[in-house]
């Protein structure tokens, strides 16, 4: 299955990933590069949504924000 293939390439991947339930997604923050204006806008929007208890946000050291919608 796709999770097993991903597990070979990504140490964060898991066979029973919450991503498979359709309520969790990742956004790569390294893709913003030096564009701090866009990155800060994203972070502020996520903080607002988290404060409204609409999502959970987890910072992953390997370059992405792991977001689960409530």
What ranges have pLDDT less than 50 throughout 5 or more consecutive residues?
Answer: none
Any idea what the shape is?
flat
Q: Order of SSEs, N→C?
A: HEHEE
Strand percentage, roughly?
A: 15-25%
Which sequence of strands runs across the widest sheet? 1-3-2
Largest sheet: 3 strands, antiparallel
Distance between termini? Answer: 26 Å
* Class per helix and strand makeup: alpha+beta
3D architecture notes:
The chain contains 2 helices and 3 strands. The chain is α+β, with helices and mostly antiparallel strands. It has a 3-stranded antiparallel β-sheet with strand order 1-3-2, covered by helices on one side. The radius of gyration is 13 Å and the shape is flat.
Summarize the SSE layout with pairings:
Blueprint: H1 2-9, E1 24-28, H2 36-51, E2 55-60, E3 64-69
Antiparallel strand pairs: 1-3, 2-3
Observed structural traits:
3 strands; 70 residues; alpha+beta; three-stranded antiparallel β-sheet
Summarize it:
The protein has 70 residues and is an alpha+beta fold.
């Amino acid at each position: 299955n796709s999770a097993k293939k991903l597990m070979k390439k990504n140490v964060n991947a898991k066979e029973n990933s919450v991503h498979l339930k359709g309520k969790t997604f990742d956004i790569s923050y390294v893709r913003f590069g030096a564009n701090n204006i866009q990155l800060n806008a994203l972070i502020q929007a996520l903080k607002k949504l988290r404060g409204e208890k609409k999502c959970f946000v987890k910072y992953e050291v390997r370059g992405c924000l792991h977001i689960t919608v409530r």
